[in-house]
Each structure stands twice: as structure tokens, then as C-alpha cells.
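Below: protein 1.
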Amino acid sequence: MGSTPLRRARTWLAAFASGIVLITGLGYAPAAHADDFFAPVPVAVSTTPNSFEAGGHATSRITFQATSPIADVYVAFRHAATNTVHRQLTQGSYNASDSTYSFDVFSEQQTPSGAYLAQYVEIHTTAGNVVVYWRDGSLIENQGNLAIPGVDAVRLDAMDFTYSTPLDRPHTTGFYREYWDPYTMNLMVRDSLGRLGMYTTGGNGTWTGAYEVGSGWNIFNVMLAAGDFNNDGENDVIARDASGALFLYPGDWHGGWYPRQQIGWGWGIFTTIIAADDFSGDGNNDLLARKPSGELVLYPGNGQGGFFAASTVGWGWNGMTSIFSPGDFDGDHKPDILARDTAGNLRFYGGNGRGGWTTSSVIGQGWNAITKLGGAGDFNGDGANDVWGIDTSGQMRMYYGNGSGGWKTSGVVGWGWGGFNAVF
């Protein structure tokens, strides 16, 4: 019944597909070993807040003493006015010569510093270790219980800068695609046994891992990567069962789940439900739902796992065989909608950021050859959102957006995806 899972780095996909699911560049996450030595000692945190006004981002640097290189650094910020927490995967690199990790954080331009306060910094190493430090420099977590000889507490006050939806990067959504993170994109899949898996990417057009993150998910006929739907800093999944009940599965910060919550009844009347990013422009993620009559209804999220009052935002959508949001597809920093009609035309519908529309156009033909379609976020890390499609042979092709409502090119990024009955 949609059981609460633990994230397991294992070859469950290979076992399921007997070698069918062969994704270019796919690897499995490295397991932490007892003899791994990781002794992080943060000794410096520096920011350049003046660059916020200039370019909407700041460069920060954290220095660690570590024998295992840093793979990723997450920073969580608390909004000073609302107390909501948002977690960002930084874009950066580790320099082994001086044990420093330099990274960029993006913020809205012309917004005063101090609107967001640093809560914790989460460090992932290439050896599979996870170490988390609280705001005052104290240790929160040491995954693997590895020995840490000494920690010099360094407060994160220097990182109290503004952070909100970036103006210079596309808006990206989805489970384990950080709500604002413009760098990485991951996909969830379900197999015939009801097992839920996650394919992670490196933000550069490659796959980096495959994980089983749940079982019993075959009770659902709709599953959505909803972004951070309850504003707790983690991305969530929304699912509908056969009775029409709608459930929120809040993601935790370790790739698992908090207890699910029922957030709706009677959703069986809809033929399509999609995650629509912040379509209404109020700062919370929303859903769009289509009735059999073709009426398209906006359900604005309230930021607490529920909804504000619904409203109709369109008619005639019953002529579409696929509807999804790619996030910001035309570069205006507002989420858009793509839809395929019965003739195989792919249509672009620009969102105006206030729950309505700007313009529409046909941006492709012949898309009837694709059995499943969806938004990919920025798969190749070029700053523009992309679209994935799976054809009848199970081949996955990535269609790379140009950031202005059109395409650059496309390429095959995987085979064997026809074995999954849901991809999102």
C-alpha cells in the first residue's frame, strides 16, 4: 500500500529487467565502507553578497580536511519571514590540493540580504559518506558512524543571503530535482511488480545511479513528481489510487519518505493530473487536472500540502493525448505547458505566471511515435529545460530545449524503458 521505503543502492533494476534496462552511463551509488576515512573540518566559509545585486548569485567556499573528495554539497536555507526551509544542491567543484569546495548559489536580484538564513550544510563524499553540520557548526549527522577526530565549529551566519527562484536559470521540478535546482534532474519509474525506482543524473547529460525507493506502488493509477509541495525543503510525490483518493508522499532528506497524507477525495473524475510547478505565481507548487469534458482546472497548492480554491483555466483540452509541464520552456521564468494532440502535434502553451496563458504554438510534429512524454528539467546542464520521450521500442530520447520555446537537438540516452509502466 505505498509502503514507506528506505533508499537502497542495489541492482534491483537489473534483476527486474535481466539486463534490459541499460542506460548510457548508468552506475550505482557507491556504498560507504567501514574503512573509509572522512574527517571533515570546516575552517572557512566565505560569500560575496555584493554579487547578488549584480548577477543574482554568489560564490561561496567551504574548506574541509578530508581524504575522500567532496561529491556534492547541499545548503538549506530558512526564509526569515515564513520560517519555511528550502534545500539547494549547489553547483561546484572540489579542489584536492587545498581541500576546498567552491560553489555557486543563485538568488533573485535586488532582494535584501538576510531574507534567507543558512540552516545546515550537508556534505556528500565520493566514498558515499554523508556528514551534516548545523548552523552553529555542531554535527547533526555522520552517516556510517565514521570517526571524526575534531571539528572546528564554523557558524554559517556568513551564508545568510537571499535565495529564491533564480532569475537566470530555468525553474525545474520533480522528485529529487531540487525545487529551485537548475543543475540536476532525476526520474522516477515503476515496474510491473509495483516497485518504485529512481534514476539520478549528474546534471551533464549522464545517469549516475539507480535506486529502489518503494514497493506496493501498483495501487496507484496516477503518480506525479510534485516538487516541494509542502514547503519543507524536500521534494515530494503525489499519487491517486483507484478510489480517487489523492495522497502526498513527503520526501525526507535521505531519499525516503515521511508518512503519507491524504490530501484529496474524488479525484477519479479527472482523466489527467499533472504537476504544474508554481503555475499561479504565489510561491507554491500547483496541480492541473483535466475533466472528461476537456475543462482544465487549476488547483493552487497552499504550501502546506493542501490546496486553495480551484479555478477553471481552459477548455477543449480533451483533444490532447498527453499533457505535462516542462517547467520554464521559453525563458521567461514562468512555468509552461506542453501538450500533444491526436494528430501528433506537440503544442506549447506559455504560462503567464498568474494562473493564465500568454501564447500558444505548434513546436513539433510526428510525436505520436512516442508512448510516454515528460519534462526532464535541465538534463544536460546547458541552462535550458528539456523533454524526454520513450518510443514503442523502449528507447528513451532526450529533446534538448533552446531556452526560448524551441529545440537545439535530440539524442538517445537509454534503452529498455518500455519495461516500466510509469515514468515521471
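Below: protein 2.
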Amino acid sequence: MEYLSFDLSSKSLTLKKSDNIPKPAPDEVRIKVAYSGICGTDLHILEGSFPCKEDGPVTLGHEFVGTIDELGSNVTIFKVGQCVAVDPNNGCNKCDHCHNANYHYCELGGINNTIGIYRNGGWATHALVPETQVYLIPDGVEMHQAVLSEPLSCLAHGWDKVNPVNVGSKVLVIGAGIIGLLWTCLLHLHGLRKTVTISEPQERRRQIADNLGLNYDIKSPSEMKGNFDVAVDCSGSGPAMEAAVSLLGPGGRLCVFGVASPQTKLTIEPFQIYKKELSILGVNINPYSFSKGLALLQAMSEKYINYNKLGIKIFSLSQHEDAIHALKKGEISKAVFKL
């Protein structure tokens, strides 16, 4: 078994090998990982600005797909050899939040118990996953496309929260990393055409966005003007979100989708919120929306989920330093490990 071990105390990421492949517990399946993504949240974890497991090393990677190669004794739904995607999030199923279908608010579950953040994840050749967090990959979807099912499930939750977004709505997408690019594809899928603008400071990422061929306006932040109905922040940048508030028209909505550092602060004029009746809404992970993410994947895969157009590059685990460097420099929109 080969895996990347992260230790928060030293902020070190180390490639390790072991002759022992872990055995699944009765309610788990073992997955032979095929592809595992690097998320922007992972970069925050590596630099120490986002919480993760503190009491010892952990294998990161909360976006991964693969093939089931061993079943726990109580598993009845799945079979060895099936191609599956993993929802890294769950709840305790005991608290009021979980009983009200809001496990992303759960103090024991949600983002506080995520596979690949608090439990060993997919930056490894093998991973153990509870049966309840495993989903079959739809027919016609390739494994390398399915690795985007977790971020798409988060987009599905965001889409539910930000709607209605009608055809003709003026929408600003802030940031042209992979999440911003997927949001633009989602908007295009839902019929929005020439009313979407992408704001991105890095020229290389503006080029990647243009390469999608969606015929959207792509501008640097200094060029931004207008009265938008909706702004979706995919950058996690405080200054970008502050600027977005001034770009919203009456009744406008700011969707805070990007994950900011916990130390990031915003300065917003309450008078503008009052005067224009603005709304600010947050989107936290993917509560019960993984099936919707898979449906989006199936609908988008042929036309939109193209690595070359999206600026996604494949790396091996041993190339993790190159992958992280390319992401931080904005040379690519996303890095994916191929195991």
C-alpha cells in the first residue's frame, strides 16, 4: 500500500509505503482508489489554516473514486469489482441537526468528521469507507470524470440554496479555479448564456475559463462593473467578497461558496444591505445531495467534464509536490492523483 501521510504538527506531507493493506470493519468496504483529487481545502489544511485531525498523522483526500476490492462481513448492497464514488461526509444520526436532515451542522459529523480530513482518505492506493457513504458510479461516466462527483454534490447543494436563478439573470462568478469553472458549466447547463461574467485575477486561469467555449465575459477584478442579480464567490477571498457586495443590484444575493481561511474578515456596509435588500448566504458541503451530484455528473459528463478544457492535470502520488506547486501558481485549475 502506498499513501501520503500528513502531520499537522510539522505540516509535513510524506509519501509512505506499507506491506499491510487495512481490512474493512463489518460495515465498511475497502476501495482500491483509481483517482483522487486535490481540493482547495486541502491546500488550506497543508498550510495550517483549516482544521483537520490533530492527534497524529492522517491521509488526506476527500474526493476519490475507485473499485471495491473487499467487503466487510455486514455489507449487503455492494459487490467486489463495482466502480464507486465516495461521499466523505456524514452525521452522528443522533442529534437534533441530523434528525432535521441538517447533518452538516452536526458537531460530531459534517465537516468535523470528513473522510480525508479527520479520517484517512483517498491519497492512497486503498481506503476504508462506511457502506453508507459509497455510491455506484452511473453508467456512461468514466472514472476520471467521477472524481468530480463530490465537488458537484456541493454545487448541487449550493444550487438549491441560491435558486431561483432564472434564464436572463445576471450572474457573477468570482474565481476561475475548478469550482468557479464548474459553477459556470452548471449555469450554462441550466440555460444561462450571455448574462454570466467570470472575475479572475490570474491571466492563466482567465485563459482556462475562455477555453471552455461558453461565450461568457471573463474579466480581471479591476474591470468589473455592473448590477448583478447573483454573485457566487468561489475564491474564498475576503476582498473579493467585499467587492462583490458593491456589484450587486437591488435584491441581489451573494453566495459564499468558496472556503475562506477561518481568520478572514469582511467589512460590509449594513446600509447597502438595507438599501438594496441584499442577501448573503453560505453553502456548507453536501447534505444529502450526493445523488444530485452524480446526476449532474451524468448530465454534464459528455459536454462539460473535459480535463483539457477544464485545466485539470493528472499526477502520481510521488509527484505531489509538483501538483501542489502547479495549483498554487494557478498553472492548472485542479490536480488529480491517478493511483
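The chain has eleven helices and 15 strands.
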